[in-house]
Amino acid sequence: MTDDVIDIYDEQMNLIGTAPKSQAHREGLWHKAFRCWIIRPSVDGKCKVWMQLRSKNKQLYPNLLATSAAGHLKSGEENRDGIREIEEELGLKISKDKLVKLFTAKRVYRSEHMIDNEFTPTYLCEISKDFSELPLSSDEVDGIFEFDLEDLINLFNHKIDKIFSSGLVKTTDGKKELKTGYFWRKDFVPHDDDYYQKVFLTIKRYSEGALSS
């Protein structure tokens, strides 16, 4: 995997230099990672949210559900340049003017292998495509699942313990198949519940017309 050079910041998000991504994770240097949540309005008026199933071969959080598309910003890139991740991971080409800014979060993750200090400019993108149209050609993603927004809100508010979803997954022979089933909070990349609540409640505000680009 390429060790991209990324911009490095202080804790107030002031640019102070550059470093290889591996060094940033080894030393806990602050950097930026783009995130985009893809939503789709359904025919019954509900808001659907896409979440990717991370590859079983990923070192971090394999086989867990994550943001629709995400990735580190390379040195010199602006926040919205991270839109390339949507095409790289999902095979979906989207123009920057389709992005709606939600917020920028601050994320700290520690393990025995890495210290991940990130600023995460977080966006929303509304599309009309069905997930069945995605090629799922990236080695980083093993599937895509579509969830009802209200179900996600209730799950991370601990009002319910599981939610139902349908999606598209890769098979062992390299093909794709539709899959349905229930998911629990343990099936999602771990974040504080407050983070997921903030994301999904902000998406709800957008779907109700209270948030614009």
Explain this structure.
This protein has 213 residues and is α+β, with helices and mostly antiparallel strands. Helices cover 17% and strands 40% of the residues. The protein has four helices and eleven strands, in the order ββαββββαβββαββα. Strands 3, 4, 5, 6, 7, 8, 9, 10 and 11 form a nine-stranded mixed β-sheet that branches. Strands 1-2 form a two-stranded antiparallel sheet. The longest helix has 15 residues. It is globular and about 50 Å long. The mean pLDDT is 93.
Helix content: 10-25%
Mean pLDDT: 93
Low-confidence stretches: none
Tally of helical segments: 4
User: How big a fraction of the residues is strand?
Assistant: 35-45%
Distance between the termini: 34 Å
Question: Major beta sheet, specifics?
Answer: 9 strands, mixed
What is the radius of gyration?
Answer: 17 Å
Q: Write down how many β-strands occur, each being a DSSP E stretch of 2 or more residues.
A: 11
What would the keywords be for this entry?
11 strands; 4 helices; 213 residues; 17% helix; globular; alpha+beta; 9-stranded mixed beta sheet; two-stranded antiparallel sheet
